[in-house]
Amino acid sequence: MTIHRNKSCLKPILFCLLLLCSGSLLQAQSIQGVVTDMEGMPLVAVAISNKTRGQVTMSDADGRYNLAAHKDDNLEFTYLGYYSVSMKMPEEGNVFRRISLKKKLFSLDEVVIGPGWTDYQKDSIERRKTYKFALDRKKEGSVFSPATAIADNFSQKAKQRWRFQKNFAKWENQKFVDTRYGPEEVSELTGLQSDSLAAFMSAYPMPADYARTATDLEIKMWIKYNYRSWMKHPFVPKTDTMSPADTTKKK
What keywords does the record list, in alphabetical order (predicted)? Predict the structure, then answer.
């Protein structure tokens, strides 16, 4: 009689244990691994998406990633300047995969502007018209006139012109970055304001080539990823303030 009662008590306990085990097994289903380039170097901030379930994660500084997935889920690995890799989750349980991405070969200068021009594109065209003479001027060749080439290299005006051309390219890049990486969007995604916002954007400037080729989703993920890194060691420089007494002393 006692044995029968013990068995009856064990049944609900075993049932609960079975539910817990099955739940933990479902939670443990994931794909993890490392993302590298074709030379085996780890890639940071690669977007790994589970298209079936709408989940996204990013690789860390060592290229490692971990994403929940079930058998036959559609997965995609995307990274700026590299060809994407798509695959299906091969099996249930934990799966390890090393993914290698191939770099694209392209030139940023080969950009075709469509009829729907943005404000930046219109302003860029006007700037190039304004400074056309200085931008189109090339260095004299040394094949037919070596003396002219030497004189041109040492000319003060020539040096200023070459410096202007170099700085103009930097200005153009920064103008474009500002259209995709501005204080308003960063503040909306991170909640940062004033000095903290300025400190974060100064600590994590967006590369121009990334701004030109990344999608809107990749831009947002880039901001959030770097924000999490910045929050581990946030640094906001103190602004020097001057009291009225200090002002009086200086006078």
Answer: Carboxypeptidase, Hydrolase, Protease, Signal
